[in-house]
């Protein structure tokens, strides 16, 4: 499978495309208490790839589905990367 890229995010969802350096905590390392911006393409992409790794998701359509779940169902209370990832892990089976 080809790597999942930011440009593979669903075109039906409007994302901000801010330049974020690859060593920025928002898009590198292990998810932590860094604030999570669900409208920022790089941050959503980072969370998707981390979640896909944990769940062993490999198909592009599965990763697109994660983006759609984040956009449509992630509660507003999920303010950090850890909160968002924990919510996804707990609720993924519902989607």
SSE diagram, text form:
Elements lengths: L40 H15 L4 H14 L7 H11 L4
Task: Output the keywords.
mainly alpha, 95 residues
What does this structure look like?
With 95 residues, the protein is mostly helical. The protein is 42% helix and 0% strand. It has helices at 41-55, 60-73, 81-91. α1 crosses α2 (60-73) and α1 packs across α3 (81-91). It starts with 40 loop residues before the first helix and ends with a helix. The mean pLDDT is 95.
Q: Short summary of the structure?
A:
With 95 residues, the chain is mostly helical.
Q: What structural class is derived from the secondary structure elements? A: mainly alpha
Question: What is the percent of helical residues?
Answer: 40-55%
| Topology order in helix (H) and strand (E) letters | HHH
Q: Rough shape?
A: globular
Rg from Cα: 12 Å
Count of beta strands = 0
Beta-strand content estimate? under 5%
